[in-house]
Each structure stands twice: as C-alpha cells, then as structure tokens.
Specification:
The protein has a domain of 61 residues: Nucleotidyltransferase, domain 5 (2-Layer Sandwich). Helices cover 42% and strands 12% of the residues. The chain is α+β, with helices and mostly antiparallel strands. The chain is elongated, with a radius of gyration of 21 Å.
C-alpha cells in the first residue's frame, strides 16, 4: 500500500520483538508461513530506497493497529466486485 501511494522510504513499527528480529535477520524463522512472509518482505523492501523496522512497546501500538486495520480494509475492498445493472424502464409491480 505504501509503494502504491508513492512512498519510497518506509519506516515500519511492530510491537513484536520476534517479528522485528526476524525481519532484521537476527532471528531465524522456523514456521513455514513466517519464512514465506519474510521472503515477501525481502522482495518488497527492494522497491523502496530505504526501509527500517522499529520495535515499539505494545502500549504505543494503537497507531500501528489502526494502520493495519486500514490496510486490511483496503485489501478487502480490492477483492469485492459490485455489479450495477441499468434498467432503461424501471417499474415496480405491486405484490399481494
């Protein structure tokens, strides 16, 4: 989402020490799903001129939670299809 709106320098925050250390390469990911996420991150971060991730305390994570919910909502919007049907002569038929 950041790249799509024109960001070229990315500063990310996480309250998870494990995730931050895995992204930084300090800790090794053991779960297959996390390894896949880290591969995606490695690919995406090459799109930016700079990328930094910072661990923050959980109590300071309200902004990050809000942003992640916003990103999820936008992603959900991309997958929805709304069909609009134009009726040249619309009419209502009474039912009994």
């Amino acid at each position: 989402m950041a790249y799509e709106v024109g960001a070229r320098h990315l500063l990310a925050y996480s309250d998870s020490q494990l995730v931050v250390k895995q992204i930084e390469g300090v800790y090794e990911a053991k779960k297959k799903s996390m390894v896949q996420y880290l591969q995606q991150i490695a690919e995406l971060r090459t799109s930016f001129k700079s990328f930094q991730i910072i661990q923050i305390p959980r109590e300071e994570n309200a902004k990050a939670d809000w942003l992640s919910r916003l990103a999820s909502a936008l992603e959900d919007c991309r997958t929805r299809h709304i069909t609009i049907q134009y009726l040249p002569n619309p009419r209502a038929t009474p039912t009994l």
